[in-house]
């Protein structure tokens, strides 16, 4: 039986809900799926695949980036996928970044006012700008897929400077709902790939 880890970082609990939905879908083919906060993960040896999710809070959640750096050697030996929750994303029609397949929640991505002249907020909220720092943090890893989901923004779970950033720079609105059918669709699409156990996720060469 395959054993899959869905690890997540969260500020106010919203991303935990997404992680549980992903895990539920992954388990439908009989796999054993554990859902843990990244701080609870001490050993990855028992897992055949890993999904890591976290929100965008002035960059991808620091705990998720720390997890990648800490476990980079262990994560190289298994299929790996990322999901990112956000309240603002500029629709620029990318289907991949550095050859990595990208899936974007249609409820999240918004068309820019002028694709040729993006505003500061629109430039910051691009798929590429969100993902590249995560890839750079663990360059020996290559996720099989990355999904961007609409998140829920709870200002009470933020430090004051985080709150100012998302309100003034990102101009994200509090609230929001998860697109559960899209989350489940993405998770279901991962099952064949994650079933290819003990497949290294490191780039060739």
Break the fold down into its secondary structure elements and pairings.
Blueprint: E1 3-8, H1 14-26, E2 32-37, E3 49-55, H2 62-70, H3 72-75, E4 80-86, E5 89-90, E6 96-97, E7 100-104, E8 109-110, H4 120-124, H5 127-137, E9 145-150, H6 160-169, H7 180-194
Parallel strand pairs: 1-2, 1-3, 3-4, 4-9, 5-8, 7-9
Antiparallel strand pairs: 6-7
Helix pairs in contact: 1-7
Describe the structure.
This protein has 205 residues and is of the alpha/beta class. The protein has one domain (3-194): Flavodoxin domain (Rossmann fold, 3-Layer(aba) Sandwich), CATH 3.40.50. Helix content is 33%, strand content 21%. It has helices at 14-26, 62-70, 72-75, 120-124, 127-137, 160-169, 180-194, and strands at 3-8, 32-37, 49-55, 80-86, 89-90, 96-97, 100-104, 109-110, 145-150. The strands form two sheets. Strands 2-1-3-4-9-7-6 form a seven-stranded mixed beta sheet. It has a two-stranded parallel sheet with strand order 5-8. The protein is globular, with a radius of gyration of 16 Å. The two termini are 31 Å apart.
């Amino acid at each position: 039986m395959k054993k899959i880890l869905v690890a997540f970082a969260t500020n106010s609990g919203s991303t935990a809900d997404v992680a549980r939905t992903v895990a539920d879908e992954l388990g439908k083919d009989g796999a054993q799926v554990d859902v843990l906060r990244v701080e609870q993960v001490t050993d990855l040896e028992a897992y055949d695949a890993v999904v890591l999710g976290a929100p965008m809070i002035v960059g991808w959640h620091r705990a998720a980036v720390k997890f990648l750096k800490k476990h980079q050697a262990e994560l190289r030996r298994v299929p790996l996928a990322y999901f990112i929750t956000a309240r603002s994303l500029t629709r620029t029609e990318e289907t991949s970044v550095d050859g990595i397949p990208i899936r974007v929640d249609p409820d999240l991505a918004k068309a820019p006012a002028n694709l040729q002249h993006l505003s500061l907020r629109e430039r910051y909220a691009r798929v590429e700008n969100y993902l590249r720092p995560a890839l750079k943090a663990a360059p020996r890893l290559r996720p099989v897929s990355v999904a961007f989901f609409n998140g829920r923004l709870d200002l009470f779970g933020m430090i004051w400077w985080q709150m100012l950033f998302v309100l003034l720079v990102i101009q994200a609105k509090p609230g929001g709902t998860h697109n559960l059918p899209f989350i489940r669709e993405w998770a279901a699409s991962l099952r064949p790939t994650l079933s290819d156990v003990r497949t290294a996720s490191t780039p060739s060469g």
